[in-house]
Design goal:
The complex is a heterodimer of chains A (335) and B (136). Chain A is an alpha+beta fold. Chain A is built from ten helices and twelve strands. Chain A folds into two domains: 134 residues, no CATH class; 108 residues, PH-domain like. Chain B is globular, with a radius of gyration of 16 Å. Chain B folds into two domains: 64 residues, Arc Repressor Mutant, subunit A (Orthogonal Bundle); 50 residues, no CATH class. With 136 residues, chain B is mainly α. In chain B, 56% of the residues lie in helices and 6% in strands. Classes of the chains: A alpha+beta (335), B mainly alpha (136). Strand 3 of chain A pairs antiparallel with strand 1 of chain B.
Chain lengths: 335, 136
């Protein structure tokens, strides 16, 4: 079955219209020279020549890429929405595509006039971006709110609670862990690392400093492979990141004064995924919209993203000596 | 997942780890592809020797419970799709079952009571210490 989108696709129409207008202009432009400048140096002077279609093919490819990225981001936003809120991310594709379309139209005019110096086509840029972005803002305001209910089944933690009681009473050494290592993080980590290493190999003899930076960045990105791992022992709660398990959060169990289940909206509340923060708390998550919010005696608040928040909260309550969980309806803190 | 090492448990530490991993797979708390903690991290967290954890992981790998490859995290393996034949089951479990039957006899349990106990554990997975404490 085809997955149903929560957000209406018509909010992407301004970006599609920008692409259509540019290709309409191209179709009506008449015959173009067989060889035109396709690359320009830092001073704007042409340094490479080729087919005039090269730049327009690049524009088409980038437009499709940004359009798909925007559909994905807007869908994420819509699924996390609990009431209608203005999605500023929806302007991404319109801003980028109308900017590219303006530049491409300026380039078309340049090659029609036989010029070989690329300047900033301010008139073409404004003629695209103002109506396209304006329409996008209007459509985003008109976008209806569609409730998207994820099936949330509260986990039964009674067996775990019983096990923890016995373990704590017996003085056993214990460790609980869970990880968030989604596929997209692994793909991004490997893809960026491969691109960086390939770039370093190409630059090694020409630009050794850039090559070394690329190798460094490639190693850092490669180490991201592994995601977040949360461990809870009798003494501490820790969050580690990446392949080598770099510790990004360490709390003493005795410092934790409250443990709450917390539902959040990654894009709206934190602007994305990863190690995040806002005025109220620091957060560590790579997927989902549920986690465990810990408050310490020093007034610090940390949100640990979790696929099993009830289980994680149960274990932390046990090691922090905070007793058993309140009734399920009282556990989730409001956002 | 939760691993606990109880000093009062008479089994070797590596065996406690092996048993708990298997029980959590049986209860569905650990599923195919789930990561186990790196050897060093698990050893540090539990305050036990590195080689004890490595030994447990090797046992689990030999039994086809986890995948363990150099440079990669230990992950829960795909459960076997074709059940073991009677001969394979007897080779793998016969010794433990004979010991279990003998222990049940020494505890004064009848065959029916042993069956009922087994059924209960098969249905729910085993709660960790409660039953052994009751026996003691």
């Amino acid at each position: 079955m085809r997955p149903r989108l929560t957000h209406p696709l018509w909010i992407h129409l301004p970006a599609v219209a920008a692409v259509a207008v540019l290709f309409g202009s191209l179709a009506n432009a008449g015959p173009l020279p067989g060889e035109v400048p396709i690359h320009f140096g830092p001073d704007g002077q042409a340094d490479t020549y080729g087919s005039p279609m090269t730049a327009f093919a690049l524009f088409a490819g980038l437009s499709v890429g940004f359009l798909l990225l925007s559909v994905w981001l807007d869908e994420l936003w819509a699924r996390q929405e609990r009431e209608k809120t203005f999605n500023f991310l929806t302007l991404l594709d319109e801003l980028v595509i109308s900017g590219l379309a303006g530049m491409s139209l300026g380039y078309l005019h340049m090659i029609q006039q036989g010029k070989e110096v690329l300047g900033l086509p301010a008139q073409e840029l404004l003629s695209f971006t103002i109506p396209v972005v304006g329409a996008a803002v209007l459509l985003e305001k008109l976008r209806p709110f569609t409730p998207h209910e994820e099936p949330v089944a509260a986990e039964d933690t009674s067996a775990l609670r019983k096990e923890l009681e016995l373990r704590m009473e017996s003085g056993a050494a214990l460790v609980y862990w869970e990880s968030q290592n989604p596929v997209y993080v692994r793909i991004v980590a490997i893809a960026v690392a491969v691109v960086m290493f390939a770039g370093a190999a190409a630059n090694w003899l020409v630009e050794p400093v850039i090559a070394i930076l690329e190798v460094g960045l490639g190693i850092v990105m490669g180490l991201m492979y592994g995601g977040f791992r949360t461990t809870v022992t009798r003494d501490e709660i820790a969050v580690r990141f990446g392949m080598p398990g770099i510790r990004v959060l360490k709390l003493s169990a005795s410092d934790v004064v409250s443990v709450e289940l917390h539902a959040f909206r990654p894009l709206k509340d934190f602007g994305g995924y990863g190690m995040r923060g806002n005025r109220e708390m620091k957060a560590y998550f790579l997927r989902g919209g549920t986690g465990v919010l810990l408050s310490t005696s020093a007034g610090k608040k940390c949100l640990i993203g979790s696929d099993h928040p009830e289980r994680l909260a149960e274990v932390i309550r046990a090691v922090a000596g905070l007793g058993s969980a309140p009734p399920p309806h009282e556990q989730w803190s409001p956002t | 997942m939760l691993i606990a090492i109880d000093e009062r448990d008479t089994r070797p530490i590596y065996q406690q780890i092996v048993s708990q991993v298997k029980e959590q797979i049986q209860r569905g708390e650990l599923q195919q592809g789930d990561e186990l903690l790196p050897v060093r991290e698990l050893a540090d967290s539990l305050g036990i020797n590195l080689h004890t954890v490595r030994n447990a992981y090797l046992k689990l790998r030999d039994q086809g419970v986890i995948n363990l490859r150099l440079g990669r995290r230990a992950r829960v393996a795909r459960p076997r799709r074709i059940p073991a034949t009677a001969t394979e089951a007897d080779m793998a479990l016969g010794g433990q079952l004979r010991e279990l039957a003998a222990d049940a006899f020494l505890l004064g349990l009848s065959a029916d009571e042993l069956h009922a106990l087994l059924d209960r554990h098969l249905a729910h997975g085993s709660p960790p210490e409660s039953d052994s404490k009751e026996k003691k």
